[in-house]
Amino acid sequence: MYWCRLKLLTVTALAGCLLTGSLACKPAETGGSAQYFDIKGYFTADTARLKKLNPYVLKTVRHNGVTETKKVKIENWGQELDTFIGADINRPAWKSSYTIATGDSLLLYKAKTPELKVREIIIKKENDKVKWMVIYIKTENMLYKDVEKLSYYPDSLYLIEKDQHVKLMGNNHYRIQGVIQK
After folding, report:
1. CA 108, CA 179: separation in Å to the nearest integer?
2. How many CB atoms lie within 10 A of CB 134?
3. Would you say 13 and 106 are in contact if contact means Cβ atoms under 8 Å apart?
4. What pLDDT is attached to residue 128?
5. What are residue 21's phi and psi, to 5 degrees?
6. What element of type H or E holds 5?
7. Backbone angles phi, psi at 15, to 5 degrees
8. Are the beta carbons of 178 and 157 closer than 8 angstroms?
């Protein structure tokens, strides 16, 4: 499957960069309003762009193995990509909460403590333009555990994968895939 190979390539490329030392960990910079990559600003701008383009989306929703696919027009891109916007880590309280590793074209943010919901963000850029982004989110307490993987490829694909375990209710697996039609 294409996405499995892509994840393997991403992990392999990142591991190779780490092993060769081409990614360097550095402390977060101070100053300016955005401590880290401005995810909220990026997706706000991209939702406006997508609203203007108004493309068809081949949207597939799967819940616990039951799949439905439809070709749709997205009326509210902000709502459609809200999970991505919610992964913004630029909050004053999180000023020094993420390690930053950079390489030739990769940017990696990793949570320093297990309490942080957004665990990891990997951004691939070429010529200062985002090529793809993968965000890992984990929420856990005594009643439930959510693990999410958000993948975004501008102009082509967004993917939300969520595994949820709720005590007394069991497990749920969700997968929402939107393939942007050109």
Report:
1. 25
2. 21
3. yes
4. 86
5. 80, 15
6. helix 2-20
7. -65, -40
8. yes
